Every structure is written in structure tokens, then in C-alpha cells.
Amino acid sequence: MREMARKGEDALQDLREKLKALSNRYAVELLEVLNPEAGDIIPDMGWDDIVEGILEMQGWPRPNRADKEERSQYEAEYEELRKRLSTRGTLYDSMQKLENAGFVRASGERGRKHRRYRITHSGRLALDAVKTIHGLILTPTEVGKAARTLLRYKNFVRLMPAQAKFLGEMGDVHGNLIIQMPPGSGKTFLAMVIVLMRLQQGIRCLYLAPYKSLSRQIVDEYEELFNQLGYSMVRYDAQSDASEHALEQADLVVGIYESVLSAVMARKQWAEDIGLVIVDELTELGGVPSERTAHEIGEDRSSRLDLLIALLKGRRQIITLSSRFGDTDSVARWLNADVFRPSVRIVPDEFTVTNTSNGVLIASADGTQQFTTSVRSRLDAIHEHIGDYSKRTLLVVTGTREAAEYYAARIADSYPREIDQHTIEYVIGESGSHPAASRLRRFLSQGVAFHHAGLDLSLRARLERKIKEGKIECVVATTGITAGTSFPFDCVAIMLDQNLTKRIDRSRYLQIAGRIGEYHLAEHGGTVYLALPRAEEGENPNIIASRLLHQPLQPLRPNRVDPRLVSAILAIGLSREKILTPDIMENLIRSVIEKTLRAALDEEYADSVCQQATILVDWLAERGLIQSKRGVELSREAQTAIEVGINLLDLAEAWDLIANSEPPDEDRIIEILLRFHLVQAARPKSPLPLDIEIKMANVEPPDEGLLRRVEVRNAMKREVFRGWLEEKSVRECIQSALMAGAMLDEKRTQWSKFDEGDMMTMVEEAADIAHIISEFLERNGMSVAAQCFALFETRLRWGLQQDAASTDLLQLMIPSETGVSQLTRREIRMLIDGGYTSIERIVRKDVDPTDAKPTRERFAKRCGLPRKRALAIYKAAQAHMRRARARR
Questions:
Q1: What is the pLDDT of residue 65?
Q2: Which residues contact 747 (CB under 8 A, 6 or more apart)?
Q3: Which residue in 22, 57, 445, 485 has the fewest CB atoms around it within 10 Å?
Q4: Residue 435 to residue 451: CA distance in whole angstroms
Q5: Is the same domain home to 820 and 703?
Q6: What pLDDT was estimated at residue 818?
Q7: Helix, strand, or coil (residue 72)
Q8: Domain assignment present for 850
Q9: Please, are residues 530 and 350 in contact by the beta-carbon 8 Å criterion?
Q10: Is the four-CA dihedral 80, 81, 82, 84 of positive or negative sign?
Q11: pLDDT digit string, tens, across residues 726-756
Q12: How many other CB atoms are there within 10 angstroms of residue 388's CB atom?
């Protein structure tokens, strides 16, 4: 026993001596200089090399020592620093103490000039421990300082390999940069390091994300830190409520491609003085080649991202994030960018899953392993191959919502998992009465979740949070979940069908497979199952597997701009010049188009867009929106439309209804909204291209099937709008819409999956359109009609009848322990029906001098709301009234 105690005391004393050696000045820097890159041979270094290494760490790289008659100022200062450090006893003493502690081994004769030094295994372990405690980043560059700040905030204990390589190789990032790293390897973290550097330099930044879910995740993860550091962060998309003032004041704006493109093309002030742009998921530039049909016009986003980057590059620093893609050099030349592409990559085990005549075959991608089973289902075979599925987390990716919910039901029935009830209640929240949320609750009770855009945005955010926390271990999702943040999944199963097979290439496959996350992959490993469709369902399964697993990555090639983008480009020129001659118009269009990647790859691209613009000008002239006698000149209405952000094609389509001199009623406003492309594109999708769009896109006119589909889906949308404005619940609105569709299409051949997430997206986008139409009408002197649209916008945003939308109850802000809230639409209706038609009526209606009880108690008793909530509302109303009196 005493012997053990003595050994323990000796070990503790040895540790104290080692820590003492590490505490000496320059000790850690000496070990860092001697430490090789991962996989490199451990070097023996002389004293001069060590001194120069420390100077480089301090920001003084060795100058080029070519023979010159005179030394530069930098060389003179460098030599002075080098001499001072080399001869200083402190550095040499620290090295001797590291040698005595066993962290460094010395060889050669005594004396600085003759000795050579090598770091020992103990020294490397000590350095690794110190770097972890110290925050991982020792390089005193601006990149290193910013990274250390983020590491502390994120509470990371170590960097992933590609991150470490970036921070080790990159100094202060200047110029444009393409960062190509595997999915889940920490690209977003590196982007935010660069963002923080620029913010510290007083430069405003813009982060472009492909999806609202990704932009929301970025804000959720980093807003608190940036606020603590004194920087404001604003989310900008169709469902954010950011004002123009907030956007102009924001240090960092996080927006999705389409929303930012609209702002840039409208020359919004907030987008003018951006200095750094982060483009996330650059692979979205890769257009999906297909034979375009009438209903697909305007659906492609590669051309929109191409145009957006073209408009932003030049005066702004561009940093792009993506996994690898083919022909990177072409994109680098287009952006005039350097490329960071580390060779470090951790890969999961990959398997193909194929139906055979006797069951299912699971084979490793390299052909070294095979597993056969007699079960007929690919999903069952995957679970059999996994083994004890309850100990492995699983993400199943499908091509459609219907497939996602089908597989979720299958897994919930056959492979249930344990889940905490609190997790279920947190995820569902107040959405429990909604259709998709109700279905999700049933599956969650068996430990399985589905994820798609039919769920409302706030529920998806809560669901993703619990997935990241590891509280939900099995998820079936459409591909939307695979863009952005990685999740801690052990296995990813990609269930290919005809729909998904058409939309997936090798780059997209790698993105989906990367949802395991490199950090999780390094710690626990991971497996990807590529479940191939049956041979009789279309393309040969072996060809599909070869394309996704082995073929070279395809280069990025955006599709051509659609007619609406041509209209928007034309509007840019028309808003700058009062009259455009044909030559000026062509030069202006070329000046925009020739900056795109598509133009860099296609010499005839600019010519074709100019031809399309000429066709469009003639069409707009026929409709009186422009004049072309002296050149191209906008009408007053067209000029105003461009200023407020209305596309000229939308204006032309809806003009007969907008220009009607009678004040618009509810039905007419709905019909106007249904003619706008943004509302048409919302689910259930009902796009009906104009004749000019069909001509410019050179596609066949819509067939009877498309016309019928638009008729059915517009009927469903009308029912949603009417029900929502009658204050029906979300469930009731959706049920009414489905019934309206059934009356026109009993077989449901023209239907589309439609849930609460779709409904709220459509309503929000319709409200945005109502807002800009109101502004358009006001500027054109049609004030009565403008007020009708403004009121309609309010009704859409709140889901209220006309009497409720006119009250100031909508302005009441109610503080609580968890934040500030507003009245719900249900609370507003209860208050109005109870006679509390304004904030003032809340305070004064129940005043009774004959009753000794406080007025707030009478309000709480009579208003019909829970007492605690009623008292909070009354208190907020009193505060509102006091502020109003103080402003008078």
C-alpha cells in the first residue's frame, strides 16, 4: 500500500516538473516549431531553423535572401529580431528545460550552433494537450485569433482535420476563395471565422444560404455570440420580418438566394455596401439538364444563383463553400479565386442495396463484402444488416414527402425505438392540431420522425434541434434536410426511386452521405446504404450505382436564365436610364450576362439573352408598359412597379384587375394574387406561364392536363385564403381546400401533397405580394385601393376578419419571463367579441368606481382568457397607454 502511495506521489511530482517546464516562456512555441504535420517525418532541427520558425509564428516570415546590394527595411528589422531572439538566454534555457523534462531530445555537440533538436512522443502529447486547453489555435494570425473566439463559444475541444489544415495554412484571407471540403467537415465554422475577421475590420457581411432551414440554423448557432461581440445579425427571407432599417443597420445579413437576388436587383440600400459575401453550397450552380416543359419555366435555381453572384462579384470579396465538383479551375478563373481543397478526408463505409430474384443483396462499394437476405424489402434488409438497430442512429432519405411518411410508418411499426415524452411534447409544441404535426406525433411515439417542408417552419426548427442533440435517433426525410448542418447519424440510407434518381448526381450523393458529419465519422465511423430501384422501374441499377459511387464529379454548368430573369435584367437598365436605345439596351444586358459562369462556358449565351430581351420589349410595348418610338422608355406604372419590386411580367398579367377603378373586394384581391408567379409557385403549385414566356423559353404550350391541374389547385388556394381570412383553424383551411379539389378532381390525379408548412408559406408570400401592390397603388395615386391591399396584407399575416385587422390590438407587446409575445388570433377574437376592441378599451372598459377591486381583476374575470394571461395583457395595455401619453 505504501509502495503504491509512493509511486503515486512520484508520478504527481513528475507531472509537476513537466508542467513547470511547459510554463516557461517560449516552451510551447518551441514544441510547435519542432512538431511535424500529421503523417510527416519528425525532423531534426538546428538552432537557426528553430529561431526562424518562432519568428514566423509571430508574424515575421523569413525574407527572400537573394543577393542584393542593399537590404530592405523589412530585412533589416527581421535580422535585428532574429539576432536578438537567437542570442537571448531565455529561449535557450526553455529548450534545455524541455530536454530535461523529456519533451525534446538533443543530439550533437554542446552549444547552440552545433546542437540539433527533435520532439519526442511525450512532447507531442504534451503539445496536443496544451493546444486543447489553450483553444487549439496557437498561430497569432488574424485567422487564428478569430478562430479561437469561435472555438471558445462553440465549446469545441478539437478541430476537424480539414479545419486544422485551413487554419494552419491560411494567413489573413485576402481575395476570393473557393473552399472545397467534404460535407460535415466544418466549412460553416471556417466561413464564420472569416466573417468575424471582416466584422472586426468594420466590413459588413452577407451569408447566402440555399434554404430557409439552413439560414435559420446559422442564425440560431451564431447570433448570440455576435451580439455579445457587439455585432447585429439579421435573417432575410420570405418568412422573416426584418425591416429595411434593420437590414441597413445589420453587420451580418443571412439570406437565401432568391430573396437576396430580388433585393440586389431592386438596388436596395442595405445590399449596396456589403464587403464580404459567403456563398454556401456553391454546387447549386449545377443545373439539372432536362427537356423543359411549360410548367417547369422559372423552377430552376442554378441560373438565379449564377446571376446573383455575377451581380455581387467584383466590388466584394467572395468566399464559396461546397464539397468538390468537376473542373474547379473554370469556376476559379470565373471568380478570380484561390482554391482551398485539403486532401484530408474521412469516408464512411458504402454499400449498395439491390433487389434480386431471391431477396436483397447488400454489397460494399469496393466489391469486397457481400450480404444476402431472403427478405424482399430494401428497408428490412438494411435493418438486418445494421444488426441491433436500437444502438445505431439512422437517417433515411427519400425523393418525395409521400415516400418519407410511408417509410416512417414502416419503421415505426417494425423497428420502434425508445423516446422521451418530453422530447415529443417539445417538438410538437402548439402545432398539435395541425395535420402533418398530428401524423408526426404518432410516429414520434415509436421513436421515429419524418421531416419535410409540409411541417411548419417553427416545428421543423424544434425537430432539427432534437435530432442534433441525439434525442431522436431515426429520421426519414426528403432531401431538404441534407443541405447544411450535419447530424449525429451512424447510418444514412438513400432510398432511390424514379423521382430521386432523376435529381441526384455524384455531388448530391456525397452531400447526402455527408450528413453523418466528419466529426461523428472520426469518432464512431459511419455507413451509407444506396438502395437502388428495381431494374424494371427504369435505368439499370448497376449504371446508377456506378454513376453515383465511382464516376468523376461533374463540372458546374448553370442553366439559362428564364424569361422572368430576363425581364428583371431589363428592368435594371430601364431603372437607370430614362430612355434606352437598342444599342444601349444590348450593351447593358451584356454587361450583366457576361459576368455569369454560364457566359464564361458558353460563347453564344449573351447573344441568346439579348435576342430574348428584344422579343420581350416588343411584347411589353404591345401592352403599353413601355414605349419604343425613341427607344425603350417605361410607362409611369411600369417604372413604379420596378421601384417596388414587381416583375413586369406579373404586372402585365394582373394589370386588367389592378387598374380597375372600383375599390377591390376580397375576391378580386385573391384573383390578383393568384396571377403572381410567387403565389403560383407555392404548394400546391399552379404555374401557368404566359404566352411570352413560352415563346422566349421555346417550349410547347401547356397541355390540357396542365390547364386542368392549375384550375384544381387554384380552387384549393382560394379556399385556403377564404378560410384563413374567416379565422378558421389551419386544419379546417386545409380540409376545405382538399374538399374543393375533390369536387373538381374526384380521382385526385391533379393533387399535390398539401400541409400546414405549405399553407403558411403560401399565405406569407401572398401577404408580401399584397404589401408591394399596396405600395405600387399608393405611388400611382390610387390610395383607396392601396388601403384595401394594406388591410388585406394584415389580415393574411394574422388570419383575421376585417374588424379584427383594423384594431390596434395587433400592436400590443406582452412581456413575460421568457420574452415578449403578441396576442394570438384566438385571443384577439375573444377580446373583440367581449367588447375589448382596442388597447384603450382593455384598460377602461371595466373601470367601476363603486367596486373596490382593481380594474385588472374585473378584466381578468370577464375577458374569458386564463387569469395569468389576462393580467399580463392588462399590464401590457396599461404600459402601452402610458407610453402613448408620454409621446403626445
A1: 61
A2: none
A3: 445
A4: 14
A5: no
A6: 78
A7: coil
A8: yes
A9: yes
A10: positive
A11: 999 999 999 999 999 888 876 665 556 799 9
A12: 7
Kindly report the number of other CB atoms within 10 A of residue 671's CB atom: 14
Q: Which residue has the cell 442533440?
A: 469
Domain range for 841 is 807-887
Give the pLDDT confidence of 217-235 residue by residue, as tens digits. 899 889 999 999 999 999 9
CATH number at residue 18: 1.10.10.10
Residues 527 and 568 reside in one and the same domain: no
Three cell numbers at 696? 422566349
Alpha carbons 674 and 839: distance in angstroms, whole number: 35
Q: How many residues does the chain have?
A: 888
b/e burial code for range 643-664 (CB count within 10 A of at least 16 → b): bbbbbbbbbbbbbeebeeeeeb
Rounded to 10°, the helix 2-22/27-34 angle is 90
Could you write out the DSSP letters of every residue in 371-399?
EEES-S-HHHHHHHHH-SGGGS-EEEE-S
- Close Cβ partners of 834 (under 8 Å, ≥ 6 residues apart): 862, 863, 864
Close Cβ partners of 526 (under 8 Å, ≥ 6 residues apart): 348, 349, 489, 490, 491, 492, 516, 520
pLDDT digits (tens, 9 = 90+) for 705-732: 889 989 999 999 999 999 999 999 999 9
| 8 A C-beta contact, residue 738 and residue 710 | no
Per-residue model confidence as pLDDT tens digits over 490-523:
999 999 988 888 888 888 888 888 777 666 666 6
Query: pTM surpassing 0.70?
Result: yes
The two counts, helices (H) then strands (E), for the chain are 41, 23
Question: By C-alpha distance, which of 396, 397, 436, 430 is closest to 414?
Answer: 396
769 and 711 assigned to the same domain: yes
For the CA atoms of 784, 788, 790, 796, the dihedral, rounded to the nearest 10 degrees, stands at: 180
Query: To which residue does cell 513528475 refer?
Result: 14
List all residues 6 or more positions away from 144 whose beta carbon is below 8 Å from its beta carbon: 137, 138, 167
Strand partners, 814: 821
Contact 362, 591 (CB under 8 A): no
Q: 800 with 811, same domain? A: no
CA–CA distance, 787 with 663 (Å, rounded to integer):
9
Q: Where are the extended beta strands (E) located within 482-641?
A: 491-495, 527-531, 579-580, 626-627, 632-634
| pLDDT for residue 113 | 66
Distance in angstroms (rounded) separating the CA atoms of residues 769 and 525: 48
Residues of the chain scoring pLDDT < 50: 135, 138
Dist CA 71 CA 65 (whole Å): 9
pLDDT at 518: 65
